[in-house]
Amino acid sequence: MMLQQFLQDFGYFALFLGTFFEGETILVLAGFLAFRGYMQLEYVIAVAFFGSYAGDQLWYFLGRRHGRKLLARKPRWQKMGDKALEHVRKHPDLWVLSFRFVYGLRTVMPVAIGLSGYPPARYLLLNGIGAIVWATVLGSAAFYFGSVLEGVLGNIKKYELMVLGGLVVIGLLFWLRRRFKASKTD
Question: Which residue spans traverse the membrane (predicted)?
Fold first, then answer.
């Protein structure tokens, strides 16, 4: 009951913030929570779309204005940004639509797209399409993964906290690993 109240009070806000800054892990967790009935899948998808879209718009406009300075702050970002710029120059529309599906490029790619001179109105439209597809596919996949997991485990209720805790731990480990790798290359 305490978990349910916490999610009702802060779950969608946490989802918005999580998808604004990163995305994948928190959206998968929210999709699973929607399966368990703690959140509504439609709201999960909508909030994930708005969070992702807003965050990517911010990074794009920062890239247009301060792209080189942002990328120069960390050598790893510089390398990734240069690689991202190569991709954007070859297939700009494809990358705007799909970058959020490529792990590790979520923050750097919108900066590179902004830096490349990609037209703002076109980015607004194609980034929106990419964000809604991403939120729908990943949120729904996590929701339906919950039903597969329940089918395999039987009554998932008795494993709920363990699965939820496991997902949180896995997400935290990925985040820590990424931060540790970033600090070693900087």
Answer: 12-35, 41-62, 124-147, 159-176
